[in-house]
Description:
By secondary structure, the protein is mainly α. It contains seven helices and no strands.
Amino acid sequence: MMIPLWIKLAYTSFVAITVAVYVVKYSPGNFLWFSDIALLATVPALWLESRLLASMMAVGVLLPEVLWNASFFGQLLTGRRMTGLTDYMFDPRKPLYLRALSLFHVFLPLLLLWMIARLGYAPEAWVAQTALAWIVLPLSYRLTDPSENVNWVFGLRGKPQQRIPPLVYLGLLMIGFPALVYLPTHLLLQMLFG
């Protein structure tokens, strides 16, 4: 085994608790967020020691998670709002335990990088993650409420964008994620772990 059993058990337990709470507190569409997909898919990646699954999730979330962490720790340390990505973490109306579960955004990218260091990077992850995104983004658009703006399928800000037709925007997003998020991450991971 490349990955110790205690890590598999601890992570799986955390995900089981998180899913149980999220099922009660959030709509089902919340599980379409790429970060939540990565949280869930990392369980089989750990148990199967799958470099493809670990690599896909890393390609999909490393850059957004870096932005999440910069926004969270920036606001935590300075008290100033950085990007809006983590506003909910500072909302006193949300229970502390619920916000604490979202701290998976801090350790998930580190775990994925560690897994890739142990298992190796799968270069086909960029194509596989793109295929996954091309399924998830239309589902996010079709199945979620615009007020939730899951994966920013309705606009890059809190409100749905109005400048271009919604389906054109969705198409641009489906091109943007692979070109602007996945490809640079893939190239970086391939350089570091290839």
